[in-house]
TrEMBL record:
PROSITE patterns: AA_TRANSFER_CLASS_3. HAMAP family: LysJ_aminotrans_3. The modification N6-(pyridoxal phosphate)lysine is found at K256. Catalyzes the transfer of the amino group of L-glutamate to [LysW]-aminoadipate 6-semialdehyde, generating [LysW]-gamma-L-lysine. Binds 1 pyridoxal phosphate per subunit. Homodimer. It comes from Deinococcus knuensis. Pyridoxal 5'-phosphate binds at G113, T114, F140, D227, E228, I229, Q230, T285. Its EC number is 2.6.1.118. The gene is argD. This is [LysW]-aminoadipate semialdehyde transaminase.
Amino acid sequence: MTGAPTHPQSKWLEAELKYDSRVVGKHEVVMTRGLGATVWDESGRSYIDCVAGYGVANVGHSHPDVVRAIKEQVDRLIVMPQSLPNDKRAEFLSELVSVTPAGLDRVFLCNSGTEAMEAAKKFAITGTGRKRFVSMKRGFSGRSLGALAFTWEPKYREPFGDAVDNRNVDFVTYGNIEELRAAVTSDTAAVILEAVQGEGGVRPATLEFMQEARRITQEKGALLILDEIQTGFCRTGKFFAAEHYGVVPDGMTLAKAMGGGIPIGAFVMTQEVADRMPAGGHGGTFGGNPLAMAAGVATIRAMKREGMAEQAREKGEYFMERLRAIQSPKIREVRGLGLMIGVELKEKSAPYIHALEHDEGVLALQATPLVVRFLPPVTISREQIDAVVAAFERVLSGVNPRAERQAQLAAQAAAGETAQGEAIQTE
Ligand SMILES: *Cc1c(COP(=O)(O)O)cnc(C)c1O
């Protein structure tokens, strides 16, 4: 599904294929517009978007409040470095700290999840005076050389050999308390953990594992850093996934949905951790820029006002209930938390994800070779969820409405009933 398209059909696709580095495999569509949980391609065909920019568009594409905030801010001020205080940044920091767990009230601002992980790593080193880390098998933390050291999947690390320095990282089996206890020592700066592993196949941690991770790190004087980049901002049915577990970490990495689509990242931490970083020990040009801050303020306020955590909880339960009702021998398990949902198949998921897009107009993500991942906007409607489930059921049973319609038209054309080459109406 993400191989190089063989027949570029539009000038946009052709140009993108010609000039892009092509390190990322491309689908054979050109997306041009989005609203709520719907996106459109250049031909005007609509799709129900359960990719949401890799779990970014939690408030929906082009949420009106976010659009208005961005438009107002571009007329006032776009760039201002963090050394110069700014009204929107002050507003954003206050909004952000109003939703983070109590005690996590110091914020380092940056532009992506990977940058948030890099910051977390440095703050953990200076915060503890230690430099070893414990990360999880199947964990994903980003792709810079620093963040890659925490990312388990060997295919992400191997092309770069020992340039990825993970001599200071021990990987333990996600969920295995004994392994974790053995790995955390008086040299451990931090344990890095996703409350629900995303890339690793949509696997929620058990209550026991999360609570033990908190206890063990506290006993050993190590930090517990939760990677809430994908799970944060209402995705799992709470503002942050940590809330499901009654666990307050020493730091959280945030990005993805926080800016309503505008790039933004943050490491939020305790005052104690923040105070131990030497002045000037970390920084960046674009972090905390007024445009991203304005988008972030509007995003967090919309999430609060529209009760998006509760919406994600209710819709997620409904979505998973409907998926579990599918009678298919190809499904091994449906799992998730809120609107972070994975369906593990007994065979490779890629062909089904491709069929969902191509035949049904539904965008879904892969997470490990066997899992189909759904990360829709929280604003997705029940009707759209029903449509996604019905489409998935058809795809699993090998029904292809587009191909059938095509065959039907071809048969009619052969019988002289319609003009040869009639266009297939897609949407
Ligand atoms: C997406 C993601 C990252 C990396 O964030 P980027 O914004 O892509 O740099 C890190 N950790 C988790 C859990 C993620 O889902």
